[in-house]
Amino acid sequence: MSIHGQGDILIIQTGGTIDKLYPQHPGAYGFEIGPPAVINILPRAAPYLSCTVESICSKDSQEITDADREDILRCVVDANQQLVLITHGTDTICETARYLARAGVGQGKDFGPGVGEKIVVLTGAVKPECMKDSDADFNIGFALGVLQASTSPGVYVAMEGSIVSGMHVVRNKDGKFLDEREM
């Protein structure tokens, strides 16, 4: 799916709370993962950015497997864009960030021309985008700002106004995303 044509920034949807919707089917009782919430957020948060949106999977992050992470990695590696935003559930965002960092994304590894120069930022939300007072708009806007301002290739998690290296990100018992080296 493309927004504003072939975009300068690739946004990859994986699911998670950010994409959850109220039940869409009669008799359903739990939130369901819907289309990429970023499609609703971009006109509000970054109307002039040129982005391409692709959906890799639509899962609760607790259901994301290493096979899904490999699909995410392949999408990042194959992308023409150097700037990649990944929307992800917050429960396992640290594991996916670490998976991509260990695979060498943004570290000059020999995947092909320019892959080692990519900047990848993962973000998500604690409340679904469809809910009042969701943190989704802020986190997407913040992550897009981080993505464009970064000069160092690599993998990062941008949540709640904090930026942490994908290789060292952890989530503490209070739900804050921190650098494990600073704990």
Please identify which CATH superfamily we are dealing with. L-asparaginase, N-terminal domain
Mean pLDDT score, rounded?
Answer: 90
Which architecture name does CATH use? 3-Layer(aba) Sandwich
Question: How many structural units, i.e. domains?
Answer: 1
And the CATH topology?
Answer: Rossmann fold
* Distance between the first and last residues' Cα: 40 Å
Strand content: 25-35%
> Regarding quaternary structure, how should these chains be classified?
single chain
The SSE string, one letter per element, is EEEEHEHEHEHEEEE
Helix tally equals 4
Classify the secondary structure makeup into a structural class: alpha/beta
Précis, in short:
By secondary structure, the chain is α/β, with parallel strands linked by helices.
Would you mind describing this structure in some detail?
The chain has helices at residues 38-45, 66-78, 93-102, 136-149, and strands at 2-3, 9-15, 20-21, 32-33, 51-59, 83-87, 119-123, 154-159, 162-165, 169-171, 177-179. It is an alpha/beta fold and 183 residues long. The strands form three sheets. The chain has a seven-stranded mixed β-sheet, with helices on both faces. It has a two-stranded antiparallel sheet with strand order 3-4. A two-stranded antiparallel ribbon has the order 10-11. It is globular and about 50 Å long. The model is unreliable at 1-5 (pLDDT under 50).
